[in-house]
Amino acid sequence: MLGKRELRILVRNDRYYIKPINNGEGYLVLKDWGLRVKYAGRIKWSGKQGTLVIKLEDGRWFAYVPITVGEKPARSNPKGYVMGAYEKIRIENPKGNNKAFIDIGLNNLFAVAFNHSDTAILIKGSTIKAEYYWWKREIGTYQAIRDWLRNHGFESWRKYHAFYLHAVYKQHERLRHYYRTAIRFLAKTLWQMGIDEVFIGYPYMVSQNDGNEYNTNVWWYAKIIKWLGEVLEEYGIKLNVVNEYGTSKQCSICNMEHENGRVKRGLYVCETTGIKINADINAARNIAKKAGYEAPIPRKILSYIVTTNGAKPITPKEGATPETPKVKPAQKGREGVIKYK
Ligand SMILES: [Zn+2]
Question: Residue ranges per domain, the chain?
Fold first, then answer.
């Protein structure tokens, strides 16, 4: 008896690509034949595609795309990356096994300390704060006019209600853009520094002074942490959330709680040793301790500001401060800031 003959067509990994239309269908584009073949079926995995195998089985053609999960496509074939419907996209693998510790806040959106380095990173929140307050004023103005008109029986209140809604929407969109920009930048920087695991502080406790602003910020922090986790995953970096309770009060140098430890202008002063440290980096070092690590006292701080088109360094040319950080004029105004503790 003759064995069944199997018909197989092999297509080299850089001679085809997949162009999804939606989750369930799309086109298989065969470059050498100039062919677009419609496919149906869900793609599960994300990764670098291998040799395409087209088989005739029971009178029907089936295409098999082997995927190396987590691997980038060949340079000759940038489209050779298959995006799965369910799996998270993973573009990179960690370069090292270093740990990063993040305090999240308003003056410094991210204050980052490391276990392997005496460099710290500050991503300033000043532009985001300015944007937030600018829209807050807009929203308040439209709201006031709208209410006045409505209370006095003017139909034009509807117009101001539309302005108000637009301003609420714009504020959200602008903040979202800034946060996502900062997160992208941070994730890439951490990957470049050989980080494979991140610990971030999150305020779990219910606040006593739960003003509107507090809730707004905590709401954003929850989002930021979720987004950060997603972007870090693209780099194969794990994100852990640590209860930040007490991390801003405790001294990361002597482990005591100094009554007046957190002083003005973003500095924490250790009363035992006299060492001054950036207050948010102090908190980041305490997050490290909570996670069971030690982060050296930073000798160098790299500061960045978030702009509409990326994070920009604001530290002097070399990006270095030789000693334990000194106060910079840019940090003033801490007193006027919303507290979320
Ligand atoms: Zn101390």
Answer: 7-82, 98-336
